[in-house]
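Technical annex, item 7. During the second reporting period the consortium partners agreed on a shared format for inverse folding records so that results from different sites could be compared directly. Each record opens with the tokenized structure and is followed by the designed sequence. A conforming record, contributed by the partner at site C, is shown below for reference.
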């Protein structure tokens, strides 16, 4: 239930179904805290002070940098977070999907679109590589089915609000699918 609510962007109901003991819900829990104004709690959860931490170190670093940048709004923090997200872009499905979400939530829409185009359309400078995956890649199958959930999570709303998003989903074939 938590994954469905998180993916649907229903942050309000998400808090009632999250289980801090379930490491499979870590990302939803972190973003639930962050999107409901509790960034310090989200960072503490991510750092393992009040919950499990299942993210590989590069992903942990990118998420932490994004949370700090969202809280501070400082140009240097935004730059650091964008750079951290770009370092995990193209590093397997997990790194790439996290990068898209982090970039979108930072407002780095050009970068988020570049990563999404590389992942979903195999065009542009960013391509997903499983030779440099940052997770022992149980997510390898994702390359063949291109999980689109990252595009529709609560924290990627700024990406969906961009006029270029319609072209992205059109080029991916989602528009034709939705209209069929």
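Designed sequence (site C submission):
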């Amino acid at each position: 239930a938590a994954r469905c609510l998180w993916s649907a962007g229903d942050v309000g109901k998400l808090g009632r179904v999250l289980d801090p003991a379930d490491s499979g819900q870590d990302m939803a829990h972190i973003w639930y805290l962050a999107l409901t104004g509790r960034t310090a709690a989200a960072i503490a959860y991510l750092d393992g002070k009040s919950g499990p931490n299942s993210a590989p170190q590069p992903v942990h670093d990118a998420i932490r940098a994004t949370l700090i940048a969202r809280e501070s709004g400082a140009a240097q923090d935004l730059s650091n977070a964008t750079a951290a997200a770009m370092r995990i872009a193209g590093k397997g499905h997990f790194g790439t999907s996290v990068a898209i979400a982090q970039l979108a939530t930072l407002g780095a829409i050009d970068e988020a679109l570049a990563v999404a185009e590389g992942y979903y359309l195999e065009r542009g400078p960013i391509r997903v590589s499983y030779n440099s995956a940052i997770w022992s890649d149980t997510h390898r199958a994702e390359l063949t089915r291109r999980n689109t959930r990252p595009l529709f999570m609560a924290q990627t709303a700024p990406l969906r609000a961009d006029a270029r998003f319609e072209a992205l989903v059109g080029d991916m074939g989602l528009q034709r699918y939705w209209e069929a």
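The chain has a mean pLDDT of 82. Residues 57-72 form the longest helix (16 residues). All partners now use this format for quarterly exchanges.
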